[in-house]
Amino acid sequence: MKKRYIALGVGGLFLAIGFTAARPYIELAFNVVAAIKPHSHSGPSAELPKRFTEIDRGITDLPTPAGVIDYIPSPNPDRNAYFGDLHVHTALSYDAFAFGTTASPDQAYRFAQGASLMHPSGFQMQLDRPLDFYGVTDHAMYLGVAQEAADQSTEFSKYDVAKYVRGLNGKKNEHWTNQGRRALAFSRFEAGVIQGLRDREIDINLVAHITQNAWKETIEAADAHYAPGRFTTFVAYEYTTSSDDAGNLHRNVIFRSSRRLPVEPFSSFNSRNPEGLWDWMDDLRDQGIESLAIPHNPNGSNGQMFKLEDWAGNPLDDSYAEQRMRNEPLVEVTQVKGTSDTHPLLSKNDEWADFELFEMRIGTILESSAPGGYVRDAYLRGLAQEEKGISNPYKFGLVGSSDTHVGAPSLNEENFHSKSGVLDGTPVDRGSVPITGMRKLLIGNLAPDYTVESNGELYMTGGGFDKWGASGLAGVWAEENTREAIYDAFRRKETFATTGPRIKVRFFAGYDWTEEMLQSEDMVATAYRTGVTMGSDLSSSNNQSPDFLVWTVRDALGAPLQRAQIIKGYVKDGKHFESIYDIACSDGLQPDRITHRCPNNDATVDLDDCSISTDTGADELLTLWQDPEFDSAQDAFYYVRVLENPTCRWSTWDALKNGVKPRPDLHATIQERAWSSPIWYKTSVDR
Prior knowledge:
Layout: E1 4-10, E2 13-19, E3 24-30, E4 80-88, H1 94-98, H2 105-112, E5 117-118, E6 124-125, E7 133-136, H3 145-150, H4 179-198, H5 204-225, E8 232-239, E9 251-255, H6 274-286, E10 291-295, H7 318-327, E11 330-335, E12 338-339, H8 375-387, E13 397-400, H9 437-446, E14 451-454, E15 457-460, E16 473-478, H10 483-492, E17 495-498, E18 504-510, H11 523-530, E19 532-533, E20 537-539, E21 547-553, E22 561-572, E23 575-585, E24 605-606, E25 611-612, E26 620-625, E27 636-644, E28 647-648, H12 650-657, E29 669-670, E30 673-676, E31 679-682
Parallel strand pairs: 4-7, 7-8, 11-13, 20-31
Antiparallel strand pairs: 1-2, 2-3, 4-16, 5-6, 8-9, 9-10, 11-12, 14-15, 16-17, 17-30, 18-19, 18-21, 21-26, 22-23, 22-27, 24-25, 27-30, 27-31, 28-29
Helix pairs in contact: 2-5
């Protein structure tokens, strides 16, 4: 039967629409773009392959199809790196509303996909590129209540406590002179609602109704913006609680699916004890509702986040450890309110420990104790528990996120807008530029405790905004960009954290690997097949020293990489030990065999314009490493830390843009970084 073709070419793809006497059909063919010359639509080109030249000259015009094709990549067995934020607040959070935020969950998800969003201080916010996944995590406690109270048409607005937020986000209240009212609204509204519920002056059923409606809005926004293969959303919220000494014990709860969900989220109204949250999650899991919780800001917990007692003060046991790890496989190691890797008091031999530290208990001006408040210390405590024959309660992976309270994370040092809306939306408010004029006179005399003098200038310091940072992001390795694939990566702890740049980190361990493996196109597949990846245990094998494969790639929009490190921790006779090894250096440099440090690569920052060296640093670092002090009889953990070349800190950028000198008591530069989840070397199988 004779065939006739219409050939349509787009790039190297040719769509052949064939006609026979019976029916039309479609064939696809590929050709090299360079071999095809442009041709007229009025007839076939002589350059086309012969099978596409048999065109019916009687057909001159075809209708233009109206449909579109959404390309969804096939799952990648070697897994892709995806970046996202799992800690985002909108106007549904009572504190964010008090900070001037009016953004909805819907607007937050649009922002994550590249749309602009108005900051409460009146300027536009926009990412330099879209994120891969996002989770709006508004506070379950008072969810939607402040917004409802401010709306004078609602039943709740009739309560006396509503006066603290009524009209709060009107135009006339955007000026800095109203910041005092906002601070009072934040504290008095919260306290007033609690007291009203206790005294039964506020209808608890009305509060539950408001919460359920806001929860429904959260769910609907997540589902509306979920685009499998392109952009993943998670139904999520924040469980907000603290210890009796104001130690932060907050967690974000992430649901795997939106198909079945609780009618409202579990909050500290239900129980202040995080173990109560785990019981609730276990019960939901029995009903087929899968979730996990991610603690954040252990740095502000006053040592409570990773203590060695349960809520009741009893020593930790196997049951506690198993329940905690079942429900909390991850910890948020970095965000705007500080980084919780380690502290100089805990890691005296770590030159990079003093990084974006926020050392106060969250929401207070009280100092926060370091022991029990940082993840490296927690890993060591977990090994110490195992040495005693008790299950490890602190065997978690790492992610970063932002904790933004304006619906939009602030991840770029150059364009930092912090997190608390109109309270820290300008350089003066966040303490990077001096107070001047009438404001200096008023605040200097009326609120001196909220200022600090540095080099003869007066700066704002209330809230600790000057110690906050432009951080962070969660990274995962997953087969595809879907809820199921990314959530499963959370579960197996194949996750990493960055302070904002999209640095990719691979980390594997195995045995009998060679340098030739690094040159193979099948390197990653081989590592998966013959070894383990981050978040996993590596069992001992005939007393061999493991091989650790580290591969990290810079963010194309960030600074070059300076070094990759492995951080090792172990416990011996109850004592904690840690070591820092530089394992890969930029610019062809090699770590010193004695100090295990890379030589200085001479990267510089010009503080006059924040320009950086262009001739130093690496685009990627790839190496195979063995522990020079390996003990086959000693359990240990290993995780990767990657450092960029130095760049200007946000406070320096603020000063530069405002024509003043950087505040001298703040770090002028930082080294952005990323961390992998650990690999645990095990001399025996877990109990």
